[in-house]
Amino acid sequence: MSLDMNISSAKTSYNVLTYGARPDGKTDSTQAFQDAWAAACGSTDSTMIYVPKGRYLLGAVAFTGGKCKSPAITIRIDGTLIAPEDYRILGRARNWLSFERVSGVSIVGGALDAKGSPLWDCKATRSNCPAGATTLSFVNSNNIRIDGLLSLNSQMYHVVINGCQNVKVQGVRVIAAGDSPNTDGIHVQLSTDVVITNTSIKTGDDCISIGPGTKNLWIERVRCGPGHGISIGSLAKTTEEPGVQNVTVKSTIFSGTTNGFRIKSWARQSTGFVRAIRFIGATMINVRNPIIIDQNYCPHNLNCPNQVSGVQISDVMYQSIRGTSATPVAIKFDCSLKYPCTGIRLQDVNLTYSNKQARSTCTNAIGKTSGQVQPDNCL
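Below the sequence we write its predicted structure tokens.
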């Protein structure tokens, strides 16, 4: 459905100003947004909640479906939603703006400024900081659109898609400092039929992270950097875990990131798996680990399980990937001793290290190459 159709077909419009929102950036408009949502929900028409230009102060707010009568709610944002100055207010909530059990919700335009940097500073210097809030979360929802949104300086994750079906994310921009902790750009888990396109992510953690139970995920035309790349995992956080399957990532650019395409699992027993993954058409610019599978994932070497990973990785293709590695090892496959990676395919890969040949390392990885592959393959 086109943007215009989404907006023009919204028959009944609810302006947040009518419900007492103030575009001054100082007056708490949380209740006004909740009231506008309740009104839109209560209509049997397709509806639009309209947020005019201006800055709107919002605390943590949950928009819940369940009893919604409206088949489609478009939230058109021409302004900026801003979080409270005191990071502890949001920091104690799990989410800033959350949508739970909704269907047919579209968010069009707008900026979300979570003012996360004081919390990042706290985490860098002290130990008694709150965990922080995800900026925008969709849980157990379906037929969702996020179009043209800007997410700034989230405390934790910027956007989370959890337990959802049929989600389209397009034209989104994510911006946070390269050293901001746990600020994943878009996190997807337990969700089916998700599409992410034409999106630019600059952040301090994974640009896109793909968690357990993700199926039929399509990512195309994404720019990432700074950040930690596009990651499947981390998996095997628990022993009972659904797998990740049918993920395609096309036409991406990674610039100055720690990783390009990463699959990571903890070294412990798990029912998880990764299969039918396609990484096609990527440019790597000074990326530390352009292609990496790490089945001994344990950041900072704290509380490592020191077992073997039970996650079975198979049928992973890397095709038409070129550019520069920031380290001598451009391709690293560190797979499980118990369940080696199988069906790994490298096709037309050209990665160099400071104008020299890069290296590849393989442990417990089985696969084949076709076309020209540099560095020389170790499969």
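The chain has four helices and 29 strands.
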